[in-house]
Write a structure and sequence with these properties.
heterodimer; A: 489 residues; alpha+beta; FAD/NAD(P)-binding domain; D-Amino Acid Oxidase, Chain A, domain 2; five-stranded antiparallel β-sheet; 21% strand; globular; disordered N terminus; B: 414 residues; alpha/beta; 3 domains; five-stranded parallel β-sheet; 8 helices; binds flavin-adenine dinucleotide
Amino acid sequence: MADKKSAVCDVAVIGGGVVGSAVLRELSRYELRLLLLERDADLAEGISKGNSGVIHAGFNAPAGSLKARTNVAGLGMIYGLAWELGVPHRKTGKLVVALADEDRSRLEELKAEGDKGGVPGLEIVDETAIRRLEPLARGRWALYSPHTGIISPYEFTIALSECAWQNGARVLLEAPVGAVDFRGGLFHLATPKGTFAARWVVNSAGLFSEDVARLAGIDDFRVFPFRGEYLITDKDCGLRLNLPVYPVPPRDDPGLGIHITPTLEGNIILGPSAEPVEDKRDDASTSEVMGRLKAEAGRLMPELSRVSFIHSYAGIRPKLVDPSGRDRFGDFIVEESALRPGWINLVGIESPGLTAAPAIAVMVAGMIGTKEDLRPKPDFDPERPHRRRFAAMDDDERTGRVSGDADWGEMVCRCEHVTRAEVVAALRNPFRARTMDAVKRRTRCGMGRCQGGFCTPRIVEILQDEGVPADRITKRGGGSRLFYGRLKG
Amino acid sequence: METIEAHDVVVIGGGPAGLAAALGARRAGAGGVLLLERERTLGGILNQCVHDGFGLFLYKETISGPEYAERLIEDVVREPIKVETGAMVLDLTADRVLRVNSRAGYRLVKAKSVVLAMGCRERTRGMIEIPGTRPAGIFTAGSAQNLVNLQNLRIGNQAVILGSGDIGLIMARRLTFEGVAVKGVFEILPWASGLERNVRQCLMDFGIPLELRSTVVEIRGRDRVESVVVAKVDDRLAPVAGTESVIPCDTLLLSVGLIPENELSKRAGVELSPITGGAVVDQTLMTSAPGIFSCGNVLHIHDVADWASFEGFAAGERAARYAAGERVAGGTVRISAGPNVKYALPQFLTSGAAGVEWSFRVARPLRNVQVLVKGKATEKVYSRKKFGRLLPSELQKIKVRQTVKEDLEVSCHE
Ligand SMILES: Cc1cc2nc3c(=O)[nH]c(=O)nc-3n(C[C@H](O)[C@H](O)[C@H](O)COP(=O)(O)OP(=O)(O)OC[C@H]3O[C@@H](n4cnc5c(N)ncnc54)[C@H](O)[C@@H]3O)c2cc1C
Ligand SMILES: Cc1cc2nc3c(=O)[nH]c(=O)nc-3n(C[C@H](O)[C@H](O)[C@H](O)COP(=O)(O)OP(=O)(O)OC[C@H]3O[C@@H](n4cnc5c(N)ncnc54)[C@H](O)[C@@H]3O)c2cc1C
């Protein structure tokens, strides 16, 4: 076997979603040989791309649960972290609105739970205050949470892994772990890119963490996939939403109810629904739910009935409770396996997992730290170089950039104003993620109102200039090829 | 940014409309004309249209898109018109300051008058909300045309085309030539939205089925498109349960409509028509923003490039006259679309204007039609014209010679 294939690492992280990436970045503070193995052609291809992107404050889970505790702790870390990593985010505040007086008691229950769990600043506000905070929202009463915010979840994920990489961690894409072998005190993880031995394994494979655990002989978990569908508007839809607006959580909804959330760029997201699905990868949209999203969001904000959408997407929750059972609440599982010491399972990390990820990462480091001495790296760099988007620059900065490098003068995306320089930089990412979606998530090319109509042919050209032959260009790796060779012409 | 470069007329977009606008401005005596095009070459959509069928009205013969563009470009380069390609206008203000980016530099430009000629973009899957998965293999017809015609790439082996717009029809033929099996064109309306001659020459001649009153209700396939589900629709255009059938294919092309590309117009505060998606203009093609004119597909969708060019010549000439100080009284006479008419353009006239020609489109196919331009108050008929047949896909013209002082209505009667 080749040398690199037999190299032993201290910790192998399975899964490059926000949780695995946060763990990798947290562990990269210490003198550890780290490796992250991700199945797909890029990071954040799983749940971490299909969610609401809300930095939750922590009043939706019962106080004292792991969900509530990691949420509140994560809230305390995530703004600083996003700033260090240069990830787009904004503290917006949030409203949970009661349309009728009788729902006020539900708001008070939420507030009480939040207060008990240490969620800062919660307040019940009246109609006037609702109008002031969000002129578009309707409601008699609302729970106002001043510390809730929004973040770009995939950019956050990528940034966490990039920061870990800067600090010495290795990240391998298209490396699904297919078999696990425990011998000689080491876990041997078999992937198409080689077999890797590790002293510790962190299983953060999202929806598939039950399957990955099973590979290690741990048959303790059962994940129930629940799909959440979304619709997203044009950022020029004529409505400007200041903050996320949620309904009182419906008692029969396994999610938080269909809400409306602004993106950092000014689009509005409607969703998510909550339906059990058979297949963990079935993230299709359905016309029935699209209709329901519009109807329910319209109750919170009648103006939404006039807007048009540019895209639909879906995310799948890894629930730990049986949809047909009586139990409504399944807590996060963050534990070292008793059967396989050194193997840490992170299972059932549904909402608020994006917010909780930094806190979960600290817990994981703590588990390793109780068994061995973690030595901090003296040269750990918590920051990632901040990249400024051309679209966000002022005239002087743009002039300077273009005169320094003409690639800043070549527009690739007309909707989001992305330049060739930014696309090339995205393609030269350290993990060699070079799919159409990798460019999209790093630059916003294709996320605008024309949905790639303009930039696709241009990115195809640039990919070829960067050495990816046309036949190997894919949307997101695997069999998602765009072309079948060249024409005779 | 210290210096702002100044010009008399700046034309945004170098397609058939913008090229003509630059020529029109120059011929009307504008001193400094600047033409900005974001592509590497001039010509706009024409560069992708390698088929014949252009120039019948402007050049009195049918030539291919690139040939049509070439003729206009030759005229433009002979004039002292400053042409910049690879130069995208990112912003336009109401007082006509443009932000322009190109490999040559980023800069601000100030114009005495501006002609909008940015063309259009295509409607997407998201806008028409097709349910299903999100695999590779879904292209808008125009970007497919670019990938096939300009980059020689094979985009699939078995294609279904949704929508019967002209680009879709032309791509059906093009893909067939390239050995791609085109399984059918599905159109939700009871009639084709592309030109009749394209239906004949691109579909019927190749035995490609055109299914009217049907649509794609689901896309399937995880990595690459594997099939689409099509269904019939009822009179309210809603899919009829029980009529679904699954068509295996690896490619879905969307030709479901064009939208005038008015992002810049919006930034400048130009009033847009919800019907055309383009600016509301007066008889000089001036928008609600003084000194900003509009022509071609950005004003309303044209099926024939020549008409876009004619509009361009007119807008360019008016922009030159505006830059030279000519002011036309604001449009106070309003023209509305009456029975069976989708829209008529211009929407406003200066009271007392004469010899104005309207472009209009019908709302549905009509036979033995009388088109009337009538006074709203007096019921006076200003113009009438007979047509054997009128289709929504065809832009038509009607002219009023007389002086107009009252609000008008354009209507069609079978
Ligand atoms: C609809 C919805 C809305 C949500 N909204 C919010 C919100 O607003 N705020 C919030 O805080 N949280 C939210 N969440 C929760 C949050 O998105 C998730 O908790 C979080 O993204 C989970 O991240 P993860 O890394 O565990 O999973 P993932 O992102 O799915 O990552 C797991 C990774 O493991 C990889 N993998 C799988 N199997 C293997 C293998 N065998 N080998 C190697 N790699 C493998 C997968 O490819 C994947 O990339 C929401 C979730 C959903 C579904
Ligand atoms: C596939 C297809 C087939 C057709 N077939 C025929 C036919 O057979 N016969 C016929 O007569 N007509 C045909 N037409 C119609 C005809 O081509 C169009 O009506 C005509 O091209 C419209 O011209 P335009 O100048 O308004 O737009 P375009 O040709 O689209 O030109 C607009 C230009 O503006 C540029 N631009 C846009 N925004 C900016 C910006 N911000 N900065 C700088 N530049 C910008 C664009 O790059 C583009 O080059 C066809 C159209 C299509 C799409």
